[in-house]
Every structure is written in structure tokens, then in C-alpha cells.
Amino acid sequence: MRFFLRRSLAAAISLLVFLLLVSLSPWTQEDSETREVRQWAQDVGLQQLHTDWNQRSLQKLGNATNFPNISYRYLAGIPPPQKKFLTVGLCSVKRKRENYLLETLQSIFQQSTREELREMVVVVHLADLDQEWNSQALEKIAKRFAPQVLLGRLLVIHAPSEYYPPLEGLKRNFNDAEDRVRFRSKQNVDYAYLMNFAANLSTYFLMIEDDVRCSKSFSTAIRKSVASREGSPWVTLEFSKLGYIGKLYHSSDLPRLAQFLLLFYQEMPCDWLFVHFRLLLTQKDAIRFKPSLFQHIGHYSSFQGTVNKLKDEDFEEDLSTHPDNPPADMITDIKTFENYLPSKAYSNMEDYFWGKDPSAGNSFTIVFKQATQIFRIQILTGSKQRPGDYLQAGIVELGTQKGRGGLRCTSYTPIGHFEHGSFDKQGLEGRTASAPECVRITVTTTQSEWLIISSISIWTKAGP
């Protein structure tokens, strides 16, 4: 009987590895980096056949199509009756020195408007093995954030320790000390159970750490960034360059990500595993937005209380002066160089549009999804690395009356010319008979240098 159980569980894990690899492989071509990561996942996954998981954990993992059936403890709040736009998730454990959980929660709620909070739920996984600490943390949260709990905006949960795989005798990859391996391995499982819980709460899931400060209206900034990626597939959007802070996922991907973390929990730190997951789902490059929306405020690590004063230099707390950039499509007849796509000029990502041999009459047009009033337009060309690739002569126009197919406007009103590769004009309300539907940049002189459009910024209202 014991032999049969062991053989069945081994087969179940093999099937889980197989299904995971198949489900993460929707591509037809793969580069060497993706192929290497895929081979790593296969090799490590097969090694799990020989690990000494306890029978209960194996039985729970053995179902290759479902995540382990966790009986979560609801410590405060209940899941919202309707799906939200965004779940903000974080795990918290006892720290040897300062604790920043309450400051983090305060920042989330303080920096969000009522309208934003209606479309958001915050989930805290109190994941410490010390139940006394969990109880103390819960008491502080419930006392300070009682209104948010009652309004269904804050949930506090705990995954019991009996659902955790072994945390002793783990592989010491990278020659890490045993206590560090234990800490990061448990952290992977903490995240896995948090993500599994949050999978059906909202359309998107944002992971942060329990020691951050947020930008004002970060949720609206995220919504705009998601809209700017419409039509372009993505796995992870990043709103901070530090650790596992400000990483956004489709909630529909959370079950697979949770399984992935649980399967490879002892292999490496979570932020490395997340990069492997992104690569396996064929997003080769990180998609990071600026400015960063979250700042690390902790002075001491949750691991052994070591000093950790990392800061994100790209963080900005007040985003009110930043452009609105309404959702739009980019159309150009300038030949695009490699992967420097037109859309990159309109986003707040680090990339830009790079076109070959611009000639007089060539154009670059922003076509809005919906007509929108425009207050200000700023367009910058060239770059620090290639200052010569700027627009030497060009005109900017506002367009109305979309033609058949909605990809171009039929009527244009000039609003100004480029000067030294830049354009910046305010007070554009009322320059057209109806709300503009397009903004067109037209090259007026053929130039031998290529053209970089580094940023296109559009404000739909006056600043504060």
C-alpha cells in the first residue's frame, strides 16, 4: 500500500511538471535564454520526484490541475461580492527590529481616492509561524483600519503551517546558509498561497512588500499604464525597480504562478523565480514604467534584521504634473528600426521610437480611442546616446473627423513647429471645432539622420 501511494504521488508530480511546462509554452519559436530557462524548469521539476515531502503535502500537490485545497483562516474581513479592478497583495512576518506593515497600509489607503478604493481590495497574508505575533499584528490592524475592514477594502488571512512543505534539509543552492535558504523558501510558499487566494478577487493583482510608501493615485496610474498596453500581450508590468515591489499580473495567471512558486520553492529567491516565470510565458524583456510608484521605506530586512536602506531613485510621490496620455494607437509610414516600435514613444517606459531615413511628408500620428480635449502637448526627439537623431524640421497638427476604419483623421489644424527637435505648447483647448481625435507629427524636410522620438506627452487638463 505504501509503495502504491509513493508511486502514485510520483506520477502525479511528473504529470504536474509536464502540464506546467506545456501550459507555459505557447510559443512557436524560442530564443536561447527562454530555451535555457525551460530546460531548467524541466530538470528541476523532475528532481522533485526524489524529494521527501510529507505525504499530506504530496497528496495536496498531486492533483495536477488544481492548487492544493487550502483552508485559509479569515482573520479580518470577507472577500468582496463583486470582482474589483485591482488586488494589492502583501505578506508580512515578524521582524527582529522595526516593523513597517501599518505604515504601508496607511500609505495605500491615504494615497487613494474614494473612487479608486471602490475598485480595490487589499489582502494581507500574516504568514509568521508565531501565532502570538500574528494575533498581535491582527489586533493592531483591526484597531487602526476598522473602517476599511467593514467596507470590504481590507482582508487579513493566514495559511496554516500544516499546508507548508518541509522547510528543513533543503538544497543549499548558491551556497546560501541554511537559515537563509529556509527563509527564502518559506517566503516563496507565503507568496504562492497569497496569490492562490487572490486569483478571483480582481482583474489585476499587484504585489508589494510590507515596507513601502505609495505614490498618490497609484491605482489610476496603473490603470493608465495597462490601457497603454492594450493589444500588446504582457505577463508582468513593473512599477518599481526594487525587489518584489510593484509587480503587476493578470489575476488569471495567478494559479499558474502559485503552482510555479510551490513547485520550485527551494530553488532560489522569489524575485529570481518571477523572472523565470515571465520568460517561460515568453515575455523576454522587463516592462518597467517610470516614475516608480512605490518606494522602499524599511531600514532593516525581514531576514535577521540586517541593514537594508535601498531606495528607488525613480520614485515620485506626486504624479499630478505627469501627462495623461489617453489610450491611443500609433500610425507611421517611417520605417521602424528593429523593436523600437511607435508605441514606445507614447508610453512612460524607458524605450523610444526609432525610425529610418525620415523624408519630407512622412508622418507619425497618435489616434485616440475616443475624442479628447487637449490642454498641452510636449514632444521630445533625439536621445543622450544619439543626439543627432532628432527631428530637424516638423509640424504638429490636431486632427478631427476620423475616416473609415477609424485609423486616421480627415481634417487637421496646425498648432506649431518643432524647434531644435522639441515641441511644447499649452492652452490648446478650443483650437479645433470639436474635441481632437488625432495628433499628427509631419516631417517637413528630408534628413540623412534617423529619427528618435523619445517621448510624446499629452495633458487633457491644466495642472494644479
Automatic annotation (TrEMBL):
BP terms from Gene Ontology: protein N-linked glycosylation
Span of domain MGAT4 A/B/C C-terminal: 329-454
Pfam families hit by this protein: MGAT4_cons (PF04666), MGAT4A_C (PF23524)
Signal peptide range: 1-30
Pathway: Protein modification; protein glycosylation
InterPro entries: Glyco_transf_54, MGAT4, MGAT4_A/B/C_C
GO molecular function terms attached to this record: acetylglucosaminyltransferase activity
The keyword Glycosyltransferase belongs to this UniProt entry's keyword annotation: yes
The name this protein goes by in its record: Alpha-1,6-mannosyl-glycoprotein 4-beta-N-acetylglucosaminyltransferase-like
